[in-house]
Automatic annotation (TrEMBL):
This is Fe2OG dioxygenase domain-containing protein. Gene3D superfamilies: B-lactam Antibiotic, Isopenicillin N Synthase, Chain. Residues 166-272 form the Fe2OG dioxygenase domain. Keywords: Iron, Metal-binding, Oxidoreductase. GO terms for molecular function: metal ion binding; oxidoreductase activity, acting on paired donors, with incorporation or reduction of molecular oxygen. It comes from Ambrosia artemisiifolia. PANTHER family: 2-OXOGLUTARATE (2OG) AND FE(II)-DEPENDENT OXYGENASE SUPERFAMILY PROTEIN-RELATED. It comes from the Eukaryota.
């Protein structure tokens, strides 16, 4: 069971309208949201309701398969695109599709689990290719806007320098709460974590349940309410480190409040593995103010994956723990280890 609803309230996030030129007022509310919450909404993003509905219906066909079939894609298989229940939580399972060739990534998995007579099986690759491509374009656009939040002209100055080799992958998540769940007893569908990305673009269905941890006294968790046509963007650990903590990678989780299956699609936009992450002086302020010593992206990903606590599935560790850990083993990534 999770904390009582008395400590939860809905967060009013700004919505960035992608169909309009960016206004100074949107930039300032975006800047506030990125600093305070590490979350904001986007609207008019150009992705149709039909595409979400299509992905949902195909994904549910996949998740509805017997466990033996799904485990052909599980952690002990060679493909490893499926995370079964009881790894992150008893109620959470997930299916991964990697870019840049979203079509073959999705199709390779589907071909293993759907039999040849299933007429739909070719469509799965196609719709995920369409979604992956649209998300890639969206991530590039949002990344530039987020850079503008850091400073005037920072998009043109830093995008090509640091972000042009970013890549994306997506995870389709299904949450299946117990059927006897009553709404006074919310349960955790996915524990508190930060994302191992620069930014993550999240679609959550109408069930809701995404929450961000508040730094305010008295209120612990804030609901990020679902709204049709709205996607949620959150800042990940990699961008927090690159921005010298100017942008915050918020701790978030998913709670299940009603006995209904919930579906979400998270698109993670990440630095390339070999990238050395270093906040530019213009972003950090100056050399002395830089909080992180340069580190290789893959070392951080390995740290998260090799620590039971820090793994996406087990959740809890962040880039700050990585820094503290590296400091201890004298690789020293952060100049002043953060012990929060
Ligand atoms: O299911 C959601 O709404 C969010 C999932 C999430 O935080 C993640 O996959 O990292
Ligand atoms: Fe997340």
């Amino acid at each position: 069971m999770v904390s009582s609803s008395a400590f939860e309230t809905t967060l009013n996030l700004p919505s960035l309208d992608l169909s309009k030129p960016l206004q100074p007022s949107s930039l300032s509310s975006l800047s506030e949201a990125c600093h305070q919450w590490g979350f904001f909404n986007i609207i008019n993003h150009g992705i149709s309701k039909d595409l979400f509905e299509n992905i949902k219906s195909f994904s549910n066909q996949l998740f509805d398969l017997p466990s033996e079939a799904k485990l052909k894609l599980g952690p002990s298989s060679s493909i490893k695109t499926y995370t079964p229940q009881f790894i992150a939580s008893p109620y959470f399972e997930s299916f991964r599709v990697s870019g840049p060739d979203f079509h073959s990534s999705a199709q390779d998995s589907v071909d293993v689990v759907f039999d040849n007579n299933n007429n739909n099986r070719h469509e799965f690759g196609e719709i995920l290719e369409e979604y992956g491509k649209k998300m890639t374009e969206l991530a590039k656009k949002i990344m530039k806007i987020v850079l503008m939040v850091l400073g005037d002209g920072f998009d043109t100055r830093f995008y090509d320098l640091d972000f042009k080799n970013c890549h994306g992958y997506l995870r389709i998540n299904r949450y299946s709460p117990p059927t006897n769940l009553d709404d006074k007893k919310a349960i955790e569908g996915l524990g508190m974590h930060t994302d191992m990305s620069c930014i993550t673009i999240v679609y959550q269905d109408e069930i809701g349940g995404l929450q961000v941890k508040s730094k305010q006294e008295g209120i612990r968790w804030m609901d990020i309410a679902p709204s049709e046509g709205t996607l949620v963007v959150n800042i990940g650990d990699l961008l927090q480190a690159w921005s010298n903590d100017k942008l915050i990678s918020s701790e978030h989780r998913v709670v299940l409040k009603q006995p209904e299956n919930r579906l979400s699609i998270a698109f993670f936009w990440c630095f390339e593995d070999e990238k050395v992450i270093l906040a530019p002086n213009e972003v950090a302020g100056n050399e002395e103010m830089r909080l992180y010593k340069p580190f290789v992206c893959l070392d951080y990903l390995k740290f998260r994956e090799s620590n039971e606590e820090g793994k996406f599935e087990k959740v809890g560790f962040t880039v700050k723990d990585f820094v503290a850990h590296n400091t201890k083993i004298e690789l020293c990534t952060k100049v002043h280890p953060v012990t929060q």
